[in-house]
Design goal:
This protein is α+β, with helices and mostly antiparallel strands and 532 residues long. Among the domains are: 3-153, no CATH class; 156-254, Pdz3 Domain, CATH 2.30.42.10. The protein has helices at 3-16, 18-22, 39-56, 60-66, 72-85, 89-103, 114-127, 136-153, 195-205, 295-309, 328-336, 354-359, 362-370, 427-438, 485-488, 507-510, 514-520, and strands spanning 109-111, 155-156, 161-164, 167-170, 174-176, 179-181, 186-190, 233-239, 245-251, 253-254, 273-279, 282-287, 315-319, 344-353, 378-384, 395-404, 415-420, 442-445, 459-462, 469-472, 475-477, 494-495. A six-stranded mixed sheet has the order 11-12-13-17-18-22, with helices on both faces. Strand 8 (233-239) and strand 9 (245-251) form a beta hairpin. Helix 3 (39-56) runs antiparallel to helix 5 (72-85) and helix 3 (39-56) packs parallel to helix 6.
């Protein structure tokens, strides 16, 4: 699956359960037992995934039709055979992940990482679970697979890799053994191969050979795949800014490179919300996560910032790039309602497989639905005619009318610009989509991740033999233009070329950002919140 999507969606899970877990501490994992699986056990898990996709997934046929992905049913015999023949749990895990890459290709879909499993365990114990009917003890059993996946699948170097048009650069200074590799050095060879040849090698010789989807996403990261049990790093040839070529052994660290550890995205560094003045008439608000525990604190910070400005800002930039989501009412309480003088009302359409509704207990449906309505802005839910191409015998569609009520007003009457990108997902994508529908601000940047969901929260799905637990989405969501959000995301009003994220949330670094510079220079399209 797309690793950017994987990184975004795993952050969505963690952020959405902040209120119960992040700040109060995780439950200890306890001992995890290495599962001993038979060939029949491994076969059963693949068949279970295929049956779940057939019965409940809203995306399989759409992925094949619109995204050109392979037919998961046609590939099932191949993956059953691979699973039966797997010699080690590590190999079986990669076979399962390879097949799951089709089933979880759109919307929320990924193997739950260890931190999320701990959070779900706590949630299950405190209140019986919100988006899961899996006992807490079974989440603990899944920790084994989460740890194995993290350890054996991805590795990253001690510096960021920046990719532009097939060329790779270092994003940080790095002191290798006996040599400084400055930021901006070009990576020209890896293990004696050109960058493109090295990627071909990875596709053919590593666990990527099991991935059913095209794995072109490795081009965005280059140094990202763990090549095997004895893998310790890469031998890299760098072309440094001074024109000198240096070959250095680059050590690796297990795990996927996490943008969230950088100050720009890490809510532990300088806080989740940062408010700055970029110019006398331009204010800036950076929100790193839509986390529940931050709602009140961040709302107060934004209010003090704008009140202190005494209404002088003509432009306000709200930056939610690389914000993986969390709780939808963070944005409603802090980034929408206090900018309004009148209520905003709009309609959304979403679809669900009828078989999922028929096979799911009403009490569990109420949990899934209730978690999407806790902020009480659904005013009407009505069944509606299926869109063209959807069989009403198989699908049920709802039109949901939603209303956003004003809150005590921030001292701001200018133009709002919201920065979005492919790292904006889940509740952040919902925020961007609401802006698209209501027009109270201008979306700037690149399309979001495409992972809203709007009727049910994503559910946890446990494989019956191995105990692996995945997060999957059971509803699909239509954009205002009739496209499906989970396939294309939310498009900006003003699309800009890709650029690197700022190094930090400081005025100095933000003023170097290409997107921010364009807005400050007079990017057209600002929509007044309160036209006068």
């Amino acid at each position: 699956m797309n690793t950017r999507r994987h990184d975004v969606l795993r952050k969505c899970v963690v952020h959405s359960i902040f209120a119960l877990s992040i700040l109060s501490g995780f439950v200890a994992a306890g001992c995890t037992r290495t599962p001993g699986l038979t060939a029949e056990d491994r076969k059963r898990d693949i068949e279970f995934l295929a049956q779940w996709a057939k019965d409940y997934s809203p995306f399989m046929e759409l992925n094949e039709k619109y995204r050109g992905l392979p037919d998961y049913q046609a590939l099932k015999p191949k993956y059953v055979q691979l699973a039966e023949q797997a010699h080690r749990n590590e190999e079986f895990l990669h076979v399962v992940f390879g097949y799951f890459s089709l089933i979880g290709a759109s919307g929320h879909g990924h193997l739950l990482p260890e931190e999320s499993l701990h959070a779900y365990m706590r949630e299950a114990r405190l209140q019986g679970g919100v988006s899961s009917d899996i006992p807490a003890t079974q989440f603990r059993a899944a920790v084994y697979w989460a740890r194995l996946y993290e350890k054996t699948s991805f590795s990253h170097p001690p510096f960021r890799v920046i990719h532009r048009d097939g060329v790779y650069w270092t994003g940080d200074d790095w002191h290798g053994k006996g040599a400084l590799i400055p930021r901006g050095s070009q990576i020209i060879r890896v293990n004696g191969m050109s960058c493109s040849s090295y990627q071909d090698y990875l596709r053919q010789e590593t666990w990527l050979r099991y991935v059913a989807r095209p794995v072109d996403w490795i081009a965005d990261h280059l140094l990202v795949i763990n090549e095997g049990n004895s893998f310790t790093g890469w031998k890299v040839d760098f072309l440094c800014p001074d024109g000198v070529t240096r070959q250095v052994s680059v050590p690796c660290t297990s795990g996927f490179p996490d943008e969230g550890k950088r100050e720009f995205s890490n809510w532990r560094k300088k806080g989740n919300c940062v408010c700055l003045e970029l110019a006398d008439d331009v204010g800036y608000i950076r929100v790193k996560a839509m986390g529940g525990p931050f709602i009140k604190e961040d709302g107060g910070k934004i209010r003090r910032f704008l009140d202190h400005s005494a209404g002088k800002y003509r432009k306000l930039i709200i930056d939610v790039r690389n914000n993986g989501g969390g709780l939808p009412y963070y944005a409603y309480d802090n980034l929408m309602r206090p900018f309004l003088d009148q209520p905003l009302e709009y309609r959304q359409t979403m679809g669900i497989k009828r078989k999922f509704l028929a096979d799911t207990e009403r009490s569990y449906q109420e949990k899934l639905r209730g978690s999407m309505s806790t902020w009480a802005w659904d005013t009407r839910v009505e069944e509606t005619k299926p869109p063209e191409g959807f069989d009403g015998k198989e699908w049920i569609f709802y039109e949901i009318t939603r209303k956003v009520e004003p809150a005590p007003r921030y001292d701001f009457r200018g133009d709002i610009y919201v920065l979005i990108d492919g790292g904006s997902g889940s509740a952040t994508d919902q925020y961007a989509n609401d802006i698209k529908r209501t027009g109270y601000a201008t979306l700037v940047g690149q399309s979001t991740n495409g992972s809203i969901g709007g009727y049910f929260v994503p559910i946890t799905v446990r494989l019956p033999a191995s105990g692996m637990i995945f997060l999957l989405q059971t509803d699909l969501f239509f954009n205002p233009d009739g496209s499906i959000n989970e396939l294309v995301g939310t498009k900006p009003d003003v699309e800009l070329p890709a650029c690197d994220l700022p190094q930090s949330v400081t005025r100095e670094d933000l003023l170097k950002d290409e997107w921010i510079k364009k807005i400050m220079a007079g990017l057209p399209g600002g929509t007044r919140v309160d036209p006068r």
